[in-house]
Amino acid sequence: MDPIEVIAWPRSKEVRRASRVDPQEVLQRMKEGEGEPLIVMDAQEGWSVGTLASLAAAYGDAQVTVNDRAPLQEWDDPPMRTRVVRLREYAAYANGEGDVLSGSAWYLNSWEPFATYPELRETWSYPYFVEDLLQGDDNPKLLNYTKLLFGVSGCTTRLHVDDQQTHAWLAQIEGRKQVILFAPSDGDRLRLHAWEHDASRRALDPADPPDPIAYPRVYDATIFHAILAPGDTLLVPCGWWHYARCLDVSTTLMRNFANSANTDRFKLAVRSANDHAKFNSPKYLVEPGTACVVCRATTDIKPCSRCRVVSYCGRDCQRNHWLTSHKAFCPVLADLLSFKNRSSRTAATTTPTDLFAAPARDPPKTFIKHVIRDGKGGLKPNEDSMVRVHYEGFLADGQKIDSSRGPFDFHVSRTPVAKGWREATLTMRVGEKARIAVPAHAAYADRGVKGKVPPNSPLVFDVELLRIW
Q: What are the JmjC domain coordinates in residue numbering (predicted)?
């Protein structure tokens, strides 16, 4: 595969290459600023890390997970596909053999063998040019900070920053890999969506030159680029946005680590992640129809007789929920039920999960819209429009899961928002305010969003269209 051309970017730099690097200089750059990406050409001396073929010959029965895209992005439509195969089956696929995998550039982007096969730890050593405060710890969770990545030509690691405020190094063992990086201070210039502000992912694809209308500040960012060859080790400092594309069958050894420049941020990130997992999940985070949305009881529950999306264990919970939020959402959700009934079923036999599956005979309804305030004029957006909106997003039980907290600009066809919301926007006029119900199949379907949207969940959006251009 040919490398991505970066000539469209007015600000571009090749990643600096060096040997005999002073580790104190690297550390000082990280402490004093953002650091810089660096390719070290003499960091793998004495290593014996195997290629995909040799590792598959030795550990072929190991089960591995492969994806057609990576890392996961919750707005993917269609969603990312995942398969579990044997390592030898993936090696056969990479060699153009076998019939287990086909039809995509399947990426084995996170094999963690070093706790299971400790002898593999002897095939590499910690690079001399970085301080690694996690070095030598046999805790299995920390051993899994080191991974092997295998890909075929065309496999892509999408634009992201690494989790937990860690630095990373990537040692290229086999094949060529193109890398593209942006500094942390350029992160906002790469942002298309309001909700990308604090996220570790970006929708921008460097392989597709970004539209300056959709990304008005993107070409003010400096793009760093390089092609890694076997023997090269790339340093990615904490917070740097990075993207990678395999140009050949590729093997990469990667490690996330902390040093004295980021140890406080790393500890805080780990602590925050643990606290979030314990305490910050939505209060009513249950699949529709499986529990009372108020007290979470799972016995003797009955669905709302009108919308049949939320369920209750008794009248007290139903009354409380009606007064606090459901009164506003029930009518628009009930209209989704009405559409489903016209397709083939009756309200008496439709379960919440049935309701939001795609109809068997009719095209799936992707939204129901109730107009709260009419707009002005006859102009509506089209597929090529940019729009400015205020919005709030809710689960069907009334929990707020997202908000623009101010004007939010997006491109109607290029912005990967929920399909139903996007299609509803095409029906709105400037000044219009509407409540939009989106069935699960036109939102996040059965995959949901971890810690935020349960699987098979319809969503409700309150949207005000402010501008079209």
A: 106-274
Give me the residues paired with residue 224 across strands. 13, 181
pLDDT tens digits, residue range 50-88? 999 999 999 999 999 999 888 766 556 666 788 889 999
State the amino acid at position 208 in one-letter form: D
Residue 413 lies in a domain: no
Check: CB of residue 298 under 8 Å from CB of residue 399.
no
Domains identified in the chain, total number: 1
What residue spans of 386-431 are helical by DSSP H? 419-425
Instruction: Name every residue whose Cβ is closer than 8 Å to that of residue 5 and which is 6 or more positions away in sequence.
Output: none
Question: Does residue 100 lie within any of the structural domains?
Answer: yes
- For residue 146, the enclosing domain spans 12-278
Residue type, 64: V
- Collect all residues with Cβ–Cβ distance below 8 Å to 141 and sequence separation of at least 6: none
Say if 106 falls within a structural domain.
yes
Dump pLDDT digits (tens) for 223-267. 999 999 999 999 999 999 999 999 999 999 999 999 999 999 999
Residues 454, 448: contact at Cβ < 8 Å? yes
User: Which residue type does 151 have?
Assistant: G
Q: How far apart are CA 469 and CA 70, in angstroms?
A: 33
Q: What SS3 string covers 250-290?
A: EEEEEEEECCCCCHHHHHHHHHHHHHHHHHCCCCCCCCCCC
Q: What is the CATH number of the domain that holds 198?
A: 2.60.120.650
- Lookup: tokens for 446: 């059965």
Residue type at 297 in one-letter notation: A
